[in-house]
Structures are given as structure tokens and as C-alpha cells.
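thought: fold this chain, then report.
action: predict
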Amino acid sequence: MKAVVYKGPFDVAVEDVEKPSIQHPNDVIVRISTTAICGSDLHMYEGRTAAEPGIVFGHENMGIIDEIGQGVTGLKKGDRVVMPFNVACGFCTNCVDGFTAFCTTVNPGFAGGAYGYVAMGPWKGGQAEYLRVPYADFNCLKLPPGQEHERDFILLADIFPTGYHGCELADVRPGESVAVYGAGPVGLMAAYSALLRGARKVFVVDRVAERLQKAEEIGAIPINFGEGDPVEQIKEQTEGVGTDKGIDAVGYQAKTQSAGHEEPASVLNSLVGTVRATGALGIPGLYVPADPGGPDEQAKQGMLLVAIGKLFEKGLRMGTGQCNVKSYNRFLRDMIIDGRATPSFVVSHELPLDQAASAYDKFDKRIEGYTKVMLHP
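observation:
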């Protein structure tokens, strides 16, 4: 089968690889109809992880069940499904408690597994024609048959739940003001989720014009950090107080206007300045325990200089960690079906799988309006 294979920094290729097969009675094989390129894929693509050549990328996947293991009871061949990017067993302590992003079964020695991602277990990615899904009864979310809402449903694999998770981590409530740093797909989903949760005012910070325009189109207030300190811009619009809540949808590759290079803690510190005393921060943006491409020795070891004194002084709360997709994907699916949510506004391009290499290059360079790319095998 065809699949997107990592060759080395800034180099992926669509190659022939072995088609997956049933290895356990609880497996299914899904024929992929849509898969997506995620911003976190770019960390591997850029050589900023320990990813070795040969990894099949792709943790945002949906399609039609093509083969089914003998132990699968709640699914059948032909079902249309979307899978969380988290690979989870459903029965370990963390899964039972709802923390499916931290499953202790699927990736021995590490809490958490995912498709097609370095250090996240042996699970091949779904930027391919077929995908093996383990513990399928638990990991597959059934969708209505047909092709309706395809662009919306694929976002249930990761970015829509992850954006919502950022709001959950920050405890965003109706009537509150929220600052979201980053207007990439997750940041836009966080802003959209904050509005769905009843936030009265949502600021979105970025400097890419197309992304800020999308934020404005959904009713958020764009803040271009290329035009001045975003903390001061937001405070000017909140009577000098700041927002009630803040969300980091950027992560460790953050840059500032003044420096022009990476400052991994810059968004965290901006949020400490942006959010009012006793507010809360949600951090769905990715931070890693080791970054080979970090700008200094501390950053390379995952050690960042965060204004912890000011965070303590203001009594700010902080929630972090990868999204437990299964905590949100079912009701978000139903909101899509009922017309209450249309997250596909972030989708900029739909391309055949064989154009993946070009899509990665353009998405990484943030050119030609590339914000969220769907691939169709």
C-alpha cells in the first residue's frame, strides 16, 4: 500500500509499504478515506525529535472498516469510523479514569500511545491507504454512513477535541474573556471551543494574516504580535486587567517579535502577564522533555525559564497535557451532526495522498494559505 514515510529532516515521501493485517482478535483494519497533517507532525518533519527514518506518519485518521478481528463485538465491516490520535486500551487505571492520553498498556514504559509518532509506541500512522486499529471497540468512534461532514469528522481525531481540551484545562466558563496564543489549527479550535462554551470575548494572538482573518471570521478578536506586545494590546482592551483565562496553543517552538528567533517559554510568560490574578491557564500546546534543536542547552533538555514567581504571586492555576480525545469526541460528533458545530472552517486544502511531500513543505513554511491539510488516499 501507499504511505507517507519519514526520510529525514524536511523530507517525506509516498512509498510502498506493507499493508497492515489483523494481529489480535480486538483489531480492525480501516481503509482510510481521509487523514490530516497535524502541526505536531512538523516537529518530526523538521528533525526536532528523535524520529528515525522509516516512520509512517499520521495520527488524524478516519475511514471504513475493511477487516475485523474475531474479538470485536461493537463494530462491523463497512462501518464508518474516526479514531482518536491516542491509542488506548480502555482498561488500565488511567483509561478507566478517563485519561486515555496516558494509557499505560499500549506503550510499555511510557504513559501514552499514538499512531505514527516518535516514542509513542509501535503503532503505524494512517497517512496511508490502510491502518491497523487495536482495541477497536474502544478506539473507534462510529459515524453516520456516507460522506456527509467528512471535513468536520476528521477533526474529531485530534484538533477539535484538543482545542476543547485547552478550554477544559483553563476551565473556560460562560461570560468570561479568554486569550488564545496561536492561531494555527489547534488555536483556532480553542478559540472556537471557547465561543461554543459561552465566552463573551476571545482574543487570538498570531502574526500570520490568513490565520488572524479566520479567527476574526468566527467572532474572535485578532491580535497581531508583529505590531506590538500582545500582553499590552489585550490589556488595552480589557481595562488594564487582562483576561479571565488563557490558552497556549503554540508550544515549545514559540517565537517573539523582538527576538526573531525561538524563545520556548515566551508564550507561557506572555500568558502569565495576560491573565488576571486568580485566573487559569490551559496548555495544550506541545512541550517535550528533550529538544535536539533547542536554542540553548536548557531548552535542549526541556528546561525552560518560566516566570513562576509571577505565576505564584497572581495565584494562577495551570493545566497541561495531551488531550484525552475520548472525553470529548462523542459529544463533539453529535454537535456536528446537529449543526451546532462546524469545525471544518480551518481546512484550507484537500489533496491526494501522493501530494503529501509538497503539502508538508508548504504547511511548514506557512505559505499559500496552508492552515489545515486533508489527504485522501
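thought: worth noting. The first helix runs from residue 41 to 45.
final: C-alpha cells above.
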